[in-house]
Each structure stands twice: as C-alpha cells, then as structure tokens.
Amino acid sequence: MVKLIQKIVFVLMMLGGLALTYYSVDNLQRIFIDTSDIFVRFAVILIFVFTLCIITRYLLLMFFSAIQTIRRSAAEELYKEHSHRVSIIVPCYNEQAGIVASLRSLLLQTYPNIEIIVVDDGSKDRTYELAKTFEFDDGIKKLRVLSKPNGGKSRALNYGIQYAEGDLVMSVDADSKLDPPAVDLLVQHFKDEQIAAVAGSVKVINDDTFITRLQSLEYIEGLNMVKNGQTFLKLVNIIPGPIGMFRKDALKRVGYYDHDTFAEDCDVTLKLIEKGYKIDFEPDALAQTEAPEELLQLIKQRYRWTRGILQAIKKHKNYLWHIRENKSMSFVMWYMLFEAIFWPFMQLWGDMFMIYLALTSGTSQLLVFWWVMFTVLDVAGAVYCLLITKEKLSLSFYSIIYRLAFITVINIAKIFATMEEWFAFEMSWGTLDRKGRI
Amino acid sequence: MNLLSFLSFLILVITLLTMVFGVLAYFLYKAREKKKGEDDISYEETVEAQGGELIFFEKDVKDV
Prior knowledge:
The structure holds two protein chains of two kinds. Chain A is α/β, with parallel strands linked by helices. Chain A has helices at residues 2-34, 38-74, 99-107, 127-132, 153-162, 182-187, 210-231, 248-253, 264-274, 295-315, 318-321, 327-361, 365-389, 398-422; strands at 86-92, 114-121, 136-137, 142-148, 168-171, 176-178, 195-204, 244-247, 278-289. Chain B is 69% helix and 0% strand.
C-alpha cells in the first residue's frame, strides 16, 4: 500500500512538473510577444531551448533508467563467473585516515580470486606503514604494498597495473570502502566481450550533516537516474574513482591512464568508448565514500572535477563535430558538454534573467513557475531514485534546498572553473582533507 | 500582496543572496588555496632561509 502511494506521488509530481513547464513556457511566450526589446527576446528563446533540453533530459534518463531496472530484475543469473583474476589497485597519497578501513573492506570481498596492490604515491604521513601491516600472500589472495615518488593518481594507477597479474583490473580509492559482494558483482558483467569497463555505485557514508546529505542525494540521483539511464546504451561516461573495473587488455590498447588531465577516470573511459568498447554499470556493487564536510572543500572538489572533465572533453573535441566518425563517442561528448558547461551557464543565466525582469518590470509569476518547475522535477527525480534504491524518502525534501541554494553555489564554482580552464590558469592536484569517517 | 507575488519576491531575494554567497565562497576558496600554496615551501627554500646550512631529518624507516 505504502509503495503504491509512493508511486502515485511520483506520477503526480511528474505531471505537476509538466504542468508547471507548460505555465513557464506560456509565460515566456507572453513576455516574448509583449516586448520589443531584442535582449529580452533573445533571452526568452535561450531559456525556452534550455527548458526543453532539461525536460527532455529528465524524461529520457528516467525512461531509460526504468527500462534498465525492469531488465535487471527480469534477468536470470545462470552461473557465477569466478575464473577471472582481479587485481585491485589502491592508489594513495596521504590517506592514513582511511586506508585501514579501505583495505579491510577489500579483504572481506566474497570474490575469491583477487590480489590487492596498494600504491603509495610518496605519502608524507603513515599511509605506507599502515598498509604494510596488511601484506600477505596465501597463494590465491594476496596483498602487496608498493611505494613510488609522488607523481599523481594516474601514474600511481599505471604503476600498480604494471605489477598486476589479473586479466581484470580494478581501481579503488583509499578513502572508500567496498561492500563484500562488490567485486563479485562487477566481474559478472565481463561475460560480454564488448564490455571494457564497469562502474559501481558510490554512496556517501558520512551523510549526517546538512552539506553531506545534499551530496548524498546528489550521488543517489546521479547514479540511479543518470548512470542507470546511460547503461541502457552501455555508454556510461565516467568510471568513478572509488569503484571501477576494467579489462586489462582494453586498458593496454588505449595506452592505460594518461597524465594530462585532472579527471583521469573520465579520460580513460572516453578513450575506451573511442575504441568502440561498451561501458556498463552495476548498481548493487557499492562503494562507500567520504564526502567533503565543509563548503570550501566541496568547492575544491567540484572545481577539480569540472576542470578535469573539460580537459578530457578538450582532448577528444574533434568528436563533437565529426559525428559520423564515431556516433557513440559524439553522443557522449555532447552529453558531457551539456552537463559540464551548458547546464550551469544556462541555469545561472536563467536566474540572472529573472532578476533582470524583476528589476525592470516587477516580480513576475514566471519566477515562481520557473523555480517550482525545476524543484518539482528534482523532487520527482529524487523520489524515483529513492524508491528504487529503498533509501530514506525523507532525503527528497533536501531537493528543495538543493534547488534553492546548493546548486547555485556549485554552478558558480563550475563557471569560474570553466573560465579558468578556458584561460589556462595554473592548477594543482591538491588533496581533500579526510576525516577518516569510512 | 497575493501569494504568487510574495513567493516570487522571496525566491528573488534568496536567489540574489545565494549568488552573492556563491561568488564569495569561491573567492574564499581561492584565497585559502593560495595561502596553502605559500605555506608549502620546498626543501631548497627552507635551506635558503637557513642561510645555506644543511638540515638533518630523522630517518623514516621503510622496508622497501
């Protein structure tokens, strides 16, 4: 009964979102007709196009995600694949706060045929010492700790892959811990020869503060709507740092990780798609990670992600225009460009236009429709994701704060990061302050 | 004042405040990163500050 009510609420919200979209578009149309100001007309057209894009994105992703969820629940598991040897690479730099919990979780994996390679990337703290205490080799499972001078995550990953015995390579961040069946679940996807990599789910473990709850909701939506939707086409565009598995041969074919971007995970995924491989997603393979608890740390993280993704897009930019050359790659590139640049800019542009309208002609109902439309869509998206993940539905209320304040702050950071990337401002990797909450 | 006007005014004020807050937070982040960068001085810079005298560290034992 409760489930039915939840589903009815979700459907009503979607209908409400569409009704509000109609009102918003109707208002925009009236403004367009009433004004002779070229600037206002241009802004109205832009916002109209943006609104259409957003609604289409929501509906398509939700549709694909729903189909994917039905497909998964209908699929019969015939046999469990255990023949692959999996090498788990854990690159770490100053991770003494989380390395112990992370390694423990890897040792508790139900998949039997694994080796764990910790690569200490020149840490200045006790990471190496702590990891070293876990070293062992029982002939099947083993854990070894390697050390190298500091050179960045991509170099640490490549260094670890050099020593990997497995035909499947997994990257796990040292600030994350995996659920026991995670490796087992990811391995099963490699029965399909076309699959080069599989992304796992990432969950915020420290969702006990206001800012981390907002991120928790963001992660749940990002995975269950966006990644699950992308899985329909087997074109997941980013294998997340905390949990991702690759076919080693495929990695070798694309030249392993490159060192010229700050989003090596995104870059390597794009390189695999470029070569025609498929990228899958396993929602039940769970990694729990520590989210930034301070706003400035969060801005730092998002700044780095944005610049990294833009660097990866820049590297493969020819696919934006040569669609016939590689349709899958072009589709992924345009999607990423939309999410990384177009959306934040248009969202801010929309807000500024509404302020301009309010200052020149008084506050209008368009502002309310515009804002409520996005909020209702956000809440509907959140309810859908929380329903399929069986997470607390109370999190969906955070969507209101998310739309009202959080996303504007994040978008501003993204826009500044985009401008700095455009003008090639110097950037350093930096590390996030870890509290050791995993 | 009807409900729509009130909500519209409220959203306008919150949007304005959030935008200002977002810009301030970003520049605060940049300032903090800059300060961190200045605090991270290299070995060579430290030696130079010491007037060229060598600095000895205690050995950190690692069985590589």
